[in-house]
Design a protein that fits this description.
The protein has helices at residues 31-46, 95-105, 121-124, 155-163, 165-174, 180-185, 195-212, 215-228, 234-248, 252-262; strands at residues 7-12, 15-20, 52-57, 62-64, 110-114, 117-119, 131-135, 139-141, 177-179, 191-193. Helix 4 (155-163) packs across helix 5. Helices cover 39% and strands 15% of the residues.
Length: 290
């Protein structure tokens, strides 16, 4: 999109690729980048032709080297200017959290292709993505305690769910930078790849989703797993499972899924995320849901 200045946005064969693009700054994060990424995810959700998303960084040095702490960063990442009177003031909200919450709301699967250094927000923005693949040269760091601040981007919610509390605490309390093998061993990433093989591997995974699955089912599945795994009792999952199975089993997608399987052909699912989400979605906005 020509109106983006710090990211690249491309759609090809049903897969959108968002590339963090500040070549001279190791793709360091700014308020502008945050706003552009949020807009890109708005485009993703509005486009029924997009079946999956890949997020990566420009070049082979960095996915995202964290927040831009220089004057070039635009002063939009950390709080600046006059002090606010109330911590409820909108200006208190951290920009990384605005981004991860938007990714969390996305209706399409999101794959991170971590091509290099990923520290600070470069690490935490990935946590709201569904699957992370990394280059063998990638490095990660939840470095906040070494900068006198704390983890942001809602990472205190995401990270323990992904890697367990002990590992999350160690990485965040030491603030050290660690290599791709440790990220794999700790459960942060799904697989490691030679630098030249990383993006093809992410594209292959995206294609497996795009070519074989019903988009409405994937959108529901993504939200069900992220949200219902945090409920206190499995009964809450059972309530939503039941509604989802009942509605989807009577859909055109279910008919096509069974027919294409029996006929041994590729499926052509008719339902669209923009128009055919079931009537109980989004259930978490229903005042009767608790």
């Amino acid at each position: 999109m020509t109106d983006f200045t710090q990211i690249l946005y491309d759609v090809a064969d049903g897969v959108a690729t968002i590339t963090l693009h500040r070549p001279d700054k190791m793709n360091a994060f700014t308020g502008t980048m945050m706003q552009e990424m949020v807009k890109a995810f708005d485009l993703v959700d509005a486009d029924d032709d997009v079946r999956a998303v890949i997020v990566t960084g420009h070049g082979d040095r960095a996915f995202c080297a964290g927040a831009d702490l220089t004057p070039d960063g635009g002063g939009q990442v950390f709080a600046s200017g006059d002090a606010v009177e109330s911590l409820s003031d909108e200006r208190v909200r951290d920009s990384g959290g605005r981004l991860t919450l938007r990714i969390f709301e996305c209706k399409k699967p999101v794959i991170a292709a971590v091509n290099g250094v990923a520290v600070g927000i470069g690490a935490t923005m990935q946590l709201a993505m569904d699957i992370r693949l990394a280059s063998e040269t990638a490095r990660f760091g939840f470095v906040f305690a070494r900068r006198g601040i704390v983890p942001e981007a809602a990472s205190s919610w995401f990270l323990p769910r992904l890697v367990g509390m002990q590992q999350a605490l160690e990485w965040c309390m030491t603030g050290r930078v660690f290599d791709a093998q440790e990220a794999l061993d700790g459960g942060l990433v799904r697989s490691l790849h030679a630098p030249e093989d990383l993006l093809p591997a992410a594209q292959k995974l995206a294609r497996e989703i795009a070519d074989n699955t019903a988009p409405v089912s994937v959108a529901l599945t993504r939200q069900m797993l992220w949200r219902l795994s945090a409920e206190k009792h499995p009964m809450e999952a059972h309530k939503i499972d039941s509604k989802a199975i009942y509605r989807r089993s009577r859909s055109g997608d279910a008919k096509e899924g069974i027919t294409s399987f029996l006929e041994k052909r590729d499926p052509v699912y008719p339902d669209k995320v923009s128009a055919d989400m079931p009537d109980f979605f989004p259930w978490w906005d229903d005042p009767e849901y608790s």
